[in-house]
Amino acid sequence: MSRPSLSFEFFPPKDLAGSFRLWDTVQSLAPLDPTFVSVTYGAGGTTRQLTHDAVETLTKQSGLRVAGHLTCVDATRDETLAIADNYAAAGVKDIVALRGDAPKNSAGFKASKEGFQDSIQLIEALSDTQKFNIHVGAYPEKHPEAVSQAADVAYLKRKFDAGATGAITQFFFEADTFFRFRDACAAAGITAPIIPGILPIENWNGVKRFAEQCGTHIPQVIADAFKNAQRDGTESLLATALAAELCDDLLGGGVEHLHFYTLNRGTLTRNVCHALGFTPERGLQNVA
Ligand code: FAD
């Protein structure tokens, strides 16, 4: 089996300490030679400038291919496309295009009057620029707002018809969940790559909360194992083993690319990659 390609997701740092932590994370993961890394766009559009700065700095300083996330929240069409233009000017060729969520503590997504009304409109507009590979979100356990799995897959197909070139999934904990979803996508006529998103469990209590919000099922066996690991102080070991096992199952089922949600902490993701036998292939290439 040839080594799969890898990508790593980061969030933009809010302060100096966060910047150092992100840079440490990038340095620890860059030797694994990711195909790209991506930088999220804060919920509610809250990190617009920080995301842009992180994308630009990483592109210049790391030599890695960087994808900027972009959402439709709280901006007019012109403002959103100006952000995309700024990405392009910084040398960015990949965008993760999302509808996004409303800011915390407010009701669900509400499009701005002069903004993109949904992810499809954003994808179409980005596609018209012919400047980007457009990655989109996909939901193996269906998006919480979707009326059914079939409707969700049909909506994903519309995103590809609008110009998306690939999808990255929400995190999940069982390989079969991904395989069933991949089959459903294939049956719906989707041929573009669907990359599984892997969340190594750095903080069990946080992941439980996040999974509930996203509708991600946590198998009882994992919940039991973490209960024991918390008692024994072996959570990190368990997290490494679980994520490595999930990735191994995915690779065994023909997956060729793994996308890791790093939460700006490199050690766990790096340990998972090492456990899978992926060894460092390159150093950071400073192109500044
Ligand atoms: P969509 O796929 O456009 O909509 C979600 C679902 O709702 C659809 O799958 C569909 O079933 C249903 N739906 C929506 N509109 C319609 C319609 N008109 N008709 C019928 N059905 C419809 N959030 C951030 O704020 N910043 C980020 O950086 C970020 N990065 C992410 C990266 C990945 C890989 C993923 C999977 C998610 C990310 N998110 C991010 C979260 C994302 O913004 C939320 O999940 C949001 O609720 C949905 O965005 P989307 O583009 O996937 O939505």
What would you say this structure looks like, in words?
With 288 residues, the chain is α/β, with parallel strands linked by helices. The protein has a single domain, classed as TIM Barrel (Alpha-Beta Barrel). Helix content is 45%, strand content 15%. Strands 1-2-3-4-5-6-7-8 form an 8-stranded parallel barrel, surrounded by 5 helices. α4 links the parallel β4 (94-98) and β5. α1 packs parallel to α10 (266-275) and α9 (235-252) packs across α10. The longest helix has 18 residues, at 235-252. The protein is globular and about 55 Å long. The chain binds flavin-adenine dinucleotide. Residues 40-41, 43, 69, 71, 96, 98-101, 118-119, 137, 139, 143, 145-146, 151-152, 155, 168, 170, 197 line the site of flavin-adenine dinucleotide.
Core attributes:
eight-stranded parallel barrel, alpha/beta, binds flavin-adenine dinucleotide, 288 residues, 45% helix
Compile the SSE list and pairings:
Blueprint lengths: L4 E6 L5 H14 L6 E4 L8 H15 L3 E6 L5 H13 L4 E5 L20 H11 L3 E6 L10 H13 L4 E6 L3 H13 L6 E5 L5 H11 L5 H13 L2 H18 L4 E5 L4 H10 L13
Parallel strand pairs: 1-2, 1-8, 2-3, 3-4, 4-5, 5-6, 6-7, 7-8
Helix pairs in contact: 1-10, 9-10
The structure holds flavin-adenine dinucleotide (FAD).
Flavin-adenine dinucleotide binds next to strand 3, strand 4, helix 5 and strand 6.
